[in-house]
Amino acid sequence: MATAMHVSITAVAQYTETFESFNAGAINFTSNGKLFTITSIQPNTSAFKIGNFPGFGWSGTAADDKFIDNTGTGNINEGTGGEFTISSASAFTLKSMYLYLSRENLTFQNLSGSCTITGKLGGVTQFTASSSSGFNTNLGIQNGYTFINLANYGGSNNSNISIDAFTVKTTSNIGYIGLDAMTWASGSSLSTGITGSSFCSGATVPVSYTSSGYSFAAGNTFTAQLSNASGSFASPVNIGTLSSTAASGTIMAAIPISTSTGFSYRIRVVSSNPAVTGLDNGTNFNIIKTSAGTTSYLAPVNTNESVSVSGTAFNYISDGDCRAIAGITPNGAAPVSGNTSAKVWIEGTQPAAFVRRHYEITPTNNAASATGRITLYFTQADFDAFNAVNSVKLPANSGDVAGKTSFLIEKSRGSGKAQGGFTFFPRGASPTPPAGRAGRSRRP
User: Fold this and answer.
1) What is the mean pLDDT of the chain?
2) Residue 402 lies in a domain
3) CA separation for the pair 160, 163 (Å, rounded)
4) Fewest Cβ atoms nearer than 10 Å: which of 6, 46, 129, 303?
5) Prior bond to 351 cis, omega within 30?
6) Residue 271 and residue 190: Cα distance in Å, rounded?
7) Quick check: is 198 in a domain?
8) Do both 326 and 365 map to the same domain?
9) CA distances for 110 relative to 172, 243, 402, 410, angstroms
10) Based on the domain organization, do 181 and 195 belong to the same domain?
11) Domain with 179 in it: what CATH number?
12) What's the angle, vertex CA 310, arms to CA 304 and CA 311, rounded to 5?
């Protein structure tokens, strides 16, 4: 039988490891600069290692001396078979290997059972290939070794699937396993990362991706996808995109406001050219849905909340009902850190020169010199109200490119509802500041 997922085809050189340069008893080996580790599982945790038995191995063309096996007292159990894993810190593809599959006394008489090869990447199974027939039982052919070709073993081609570990497992009376002449090639991977373990529905989530071994072509789009509340991607939800050919980057994704509360969500990144399905972020996270009846994911009038800012990741500030106030990403010469408050208020009538929604961001530490990137949130209704009394327009919809060029953010020093904060006004306008507002600086 055979199952497979996440195929990544890579044109790279292959390398065959015959283990002749390693010491007997070793459970680590470096093949063509890549470190591999042998981990024993069955019948005990120390059964499999590199052995030195002159003339009992097979290099692929002739008998050799060193290979991986489970020789030794207590290391062979015909009732349970054997099992071990070979892993590495980075991706590779497994092309083929030679396996000596026999009973405890190294003979083939009445040999029965199966041999299953399982490939994993980041702990996630990428393929499973199994067979219970076709094993070599003639010492005069290939020194008794069976050629395992991952291009067809188990009925599927798994030789181009990127993995970082593979497991060999036998059953029934196939108690002894010898492995020699392992042929592999460098693999490809696309991994996903997020910072945080709990998010509100409607929240902005920076999703990072890192790839290895791929060349992304012009027109490629990376898409962040959200699983269901159980971590399944059977019907993923697209939550953000980035047009790029770079091997790494960040997608500014947004969790849909309608997302249900759950505690086992995951995010992954996929690409379009070539089409690659990346690994998910690796751990479950929570999403808390805003209260029933909430019509906006933005905080209501006159809301003030605080968050403890640290590191360089995006910090989402929301009210008690998970509705957005602002976001802070520490960066620059003196990255903001520590307790930081964010206030939002909305004027009762539409001002002539500004949108109604205003913000005040106040770090407790180094308020005068702290630096960072601020994310502010506005609704289309905010823009529509502004456009009703202004000739220079803000966007009328998400596709209004001309309206987007009218954006301008003003920062006014001070604090309190009438003094400080950020607001929008159209590029080229000459706003009149509200009473008491001074020290204005404009940033496009």
Assistant:
1) 86
2) yes
3) 9
4) 46
5) no
6) 9
7) yes
8) yes
9) 11, 59, 79, 83
10) no
11) 2.60.120
12) 140
Q: If we measure between CA atoms, which residue out of 98, 76, 198 comes closest to residue 148?
A: 98
Does one domain contain both 171 and 84? yes
- Given 142, 168, 186, which residue is the final one in a domain? 186
The domain boundary residue, chosen from 257, 288, 319: 288
Place of tokens 């055979």: 2
Same domain, 354 and 279: no
Residue 439 confidence (pLDDT) above 70 = no
Model pLDDT for residues 104-148, shown as the tens digit of each residue = 999 999 999 999 999 998 898 999 999 999 999 999 999 999 999
Q: Which residue do the tokens 């059977």 mark?
A: 234
Say if residue 376 is in the same domain as residue 281. Answer: no
Instruction: Tokens for 91, please give them.
Output: 């991706």
CA pair distance 288, 262, nearest whole angstrom: 7
425 pLDDT higher than 70: no
Q: Is residue 391 classed exposed, middle or buried when 0-12, 13-18 and 19+ CB atoms within 10 A define those classes? A: exposed
The answer to whether residues 147 and 196 belong to one domain is no
At residue 334's C-alpha, the angle toward residues 328 and 337, to 5°, is 45
User: Are 130 and 116 in contact, with CB atoms under 8 Å apart?
Assistant: yes
By the 8 A CB rule, do 76 and 82 touch?
A: yes
- The answer to whether residue 293 is domain-embedded is no
Tell me the one-letter amino acid at 246. A
- Tell me what pLDDT residue 297 has: 66
Q: How far apart are CA 317 and CA 204, in angstroms?
A: 10
In a domain? residue 298: no
Residue tagged 């976001």 (tokens): 327
Residue 413 in contact with residue 438, Cβ under 8 Å? yes
Contacts of residue 240, Cβ cutoff 8 Å, sequence gap at least 6: 205, 207, 223, 224, 251, 252, 253, 254
Angle at 347 between CA 341 and CA 350, to 5 degrees: 140
Q: 169 has which bridge partners?
A: 83, 116
Residues 68-95: pLDDT tens digits? 999 998 999 888 899 999 999 989 999 9
Do residues 311 and 395 both lie within one domain? yes
Which residues constitute the domain of residue 399? 303-443
Examine the domain organization and report whether 132 and 209 are in the same domain.
Answer: no
Distance in angstroms (rounded) separating the CA atoms of residues 121 and 10: 16
Residue percentage of the chain with pLDDT more than 70: 89
Q: What CATH number is given to the structural domain containing 240? A: 2.60.40.1930
Cα 144–Cα 150–Cα 152 angle in degrees, nearest 5: 95
Classify the C-alpha dihedral 159-161-164-170 as positive or negative.
negative
Contacts of 229 (CB under 8 A, 6+ apart): 260, 261, 262, 263, 264, 265, 287
**What is the widest separation between alpha-carbon atoms in the chain?**
98
